[in-house]
Amino acid sequence: MRKLTFEGFLKQYVAELSGVQTASVHKLAACLNENPRLKEPLFLYALAFNKVELLLRYTANSAVAAEYENINAICGAKINVRAPKINEITNPNLILYVKLVFNFS
Fold first, then answer.
1. What's the rounded Cα separation, in Å, for the pair 99 and 62?
2. More confidently predicted of 80 and 61
3. Is 93 exposed, middle or buried (0-12, 13-18, 19+ CB in 10 A)?
4. Whether the predicted pLDDT of 18 surpasses 80
5. pLDDT above 50: residue 83
6. Is residue 48 a contact partner of residue 25, using CB atoms and an 8 Å limit?
7. pLDDT > 80? residue 84
8. Which residues of 38-71 are buried (b: 16+ CB within 10 A; e: fewer)?
């Protein structure tokens, strides 16, 4: 069996949490109203797959739009973290975001 990467974990987690079993940012964003627990993992998923701008476009008229814009401003728009292992994350902006979302000190 292959080792689960951070990217693979996020893909499985948001698909399972959304209940639609998809990796489509458009379909996942549509699930935000029914499943508010999807909010933080979905942004982290978009960040890891370099799809933040796409997510911002699909959520522009939703309740989370302002929050996503603020988090994006904190993390920076040009972050690219393709398939890191969880213990190899070195991007300080991504580490900051994970700390903010999961209330780590």
1. 24
2. 61
3. middle
4. yes
5. no
6. no
7. no
8. bbbbbbbbbbbbebbeebbebbeeeebeeebeeb
